[in-house]
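Data deposition worksheet. Section B asks for the primary sequence of the deposited chain exactly as it was used as input, without tags or linkers unless they were present during the calculation. Section C holds the resulting structure in token form. Section D is free text for depositor observations; keep each observation to a single sentence. Incomplete worksheets are returned to the depositor.
Section A, Depositor: J.P.
Section B:
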Amino acid sequence: MATISIDYDSSQGDVELILEDREDSRLDKAEDEASKLIEQPKAALYNVRVKVKKIHLRVSSLRLASSSEYFRAMLEGSQFPEGKQLKENGLVQVRLSDPEDKPEAFMIVLSALYEKDIEMPTKIGFQTLQNVAVLVDKYQWHVPITPHAISWFDGLESTPAFPKSFDGDLLTWLWIAWLFGIKDHFKSLSRIAQQEGCNSIDPMEVDIRLPERVVGKPFLFYSISYAHVRIATRLFI
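Section C:
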């Protein structure tokens, strides 16, 4: 197992984000996508594949704090241990232990934050889009990621993964469309849910990320317009 370190900010990199391989059954696919973002030139040159155990991402606290309310609260001031350590030492390590903090998704987000267009994928799979959406929702990265997410979402419409009926992933697709304010897709997916859904949905279930106000009973999406007004407000204030 290897450790990979990536320096996104050589001049002001005072935060080291540490992510670990948690032996997820989907990790091999994630590593493949991560390797394309990190080691593609070397892998192509030397034809070497390395199984990664840890990934260290060196970034700027200013960049994190200015793009995310979550990291602003963590790093500014001394309320949290990370902020206190950063103030005292000028450098802090932040261990991201949540299993939902996927390395490949973090690298995609950081490429957007640092406007590294050459490293931004033009297309991603549904699972990676879902992983990115989880980070956006958790760390409030709506503004820098939404334009890319809309393009990725549109690109997946013609793939077999895009739901044409009420299958197991439709609610996840619907949540992603809601999260990024993709109005047309939200309406079309809601229509499928309304036409084919026959059971009530418990919004408290861990896999149901849609807010309770969006999910009606029995399965009526009664606040589509309100949801999008709220998204637009959240994105641009």
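Section D:
The longest strand covers residues 52-59.
The longest helix spans residues 142-156.
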